[in-house]
C-alpha cells in the first residue's frame, strides 16, 4: 500500500514538472557565430589580427637579427680570442632571452586584449538577452555548444546579432 502511495505521489509531481516545462520555452544561441558575424565581433577579431600581425613582424625582425649575429659569431670563431667570443655569445644569449620574453609578452598581451574585448561584448549582450527573453517569453537561453540536438527554430543567434549590431558597431581594445 505505501509503495502505491509513493508511486502516485511521484507521478503527480512528475506530471506537474512536465506541464511546467512544456509551457516554458528554451532556446539556444551560437556564441562563436555571434563573435564572428556581429559588427562588434568582427571589429574585435580585426583588431586582434592587426595586433598579432604587428607582433609577428617585430618577432621576425628580432629573429633575423639573432640569426645574423649567430652567423657572424660562427664565421669569426677562429679569428676571435676566447674572451671576445664569450662576450659575443653572452650578448647573443641575452638577445635570445629577450626574444623569448617578447614572445611570451606578446602572447599574454594578445590574450588579455581578446578577453577584454570579449567581456565588453558580453556585458552589452547580457541586457539584450534579458530583454529579448522577457519580450518573447523565453525561460532559458543555452549556448549551442551545450545543446546536443535542437530545432533550428530555437536558434536565436541571428536575431541577437541584429539587435547587437544596432546597439554597438565597434569594440575598441587599443
Give an account of the 3D structure.
Helix 2 crosses helix 3. Helix content is 76%, strand content 6%. It has 174 residues and is mostly helical. The protein has a two-stranded parallel sheet with strand order 1-2. The chain has helices at 2-23, 31-37, 39-76, 82-135, 157-167, and strands at residues 25-29, 138-143.
Low-confidence stretches: none
Tally of distinct domains: 1
Count the E strands: 2
Q: What's the architecture, going by CATH?
A: 2-Layer Sandwich
Average pLDDT across residues? 86
CATH class: Alpha Beta
Shape: elongated
Number of helices: 5
Order of helices and strands: HEHHHEH
Q: Strands of the largest sheet, in order across it?
A: 1-2
Give a brief outline of the structure.
The protein has helices at 2-23, 31-37, 39-76, 82-135, 157-167, and strands at 25-29, 138-143.
Q: Which features does this protein show?
A:
174 residues; mainly alpha; Protein Binding, DinI Protein, Chain A; two-stranded parallel sheet; 2 strands; 6% strand
Amino acid at each position: 500500500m505505501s509503495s502505491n502511495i509513493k508511486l502516485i505521489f511521484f507521478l503527480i509531481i512528475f506530471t506537474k514538472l512536465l506541464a511546467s516545462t512544456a509551457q516554458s520555452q528554451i532556446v539556444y544561441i551560437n556564441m562563436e557565430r555571434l563573435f564572428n558575424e556581429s559588427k562588434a565581433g568582427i571589429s574585435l577579431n580585426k583588431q586582434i589580427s592587426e595586433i598579432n600581425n604587428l607582433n609577428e613582424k617585430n618577432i621576425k625582425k628580432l629573429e633575423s637579427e639573432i640569426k645574423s649575429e649567430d652567423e657572424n659569431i660562427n664565421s669569426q670563431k677562429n679569428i676571435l680570442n676566447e674572451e671576445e667570443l664569450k662576450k659575443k655569445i653572452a650578448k647573443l644569449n641575452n638577445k635570445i632571452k629577450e626574444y623569448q620574453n617578447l614572445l611570451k609578452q606578446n602572447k599574454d598581451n594578445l590574450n588579455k586584449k581578446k578577453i577584454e574585448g570579449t567581456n565588453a561584448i558580453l556585458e552589452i549582450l547580457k541586457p539584450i538577452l534579458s530583454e529579448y527573453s522577457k519580450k518573447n517569453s523565453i525561460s532559458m537561453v543555452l549556448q549551442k555548444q551545450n545543446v546536443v540536438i535542437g530545432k533550428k527554430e530555437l536558434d536565436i543567434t541571428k536575431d541577437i546579432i541584429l539587435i547587437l549590431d544596432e546597439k554597438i558597431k565597434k569594440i575598441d581594445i587599443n
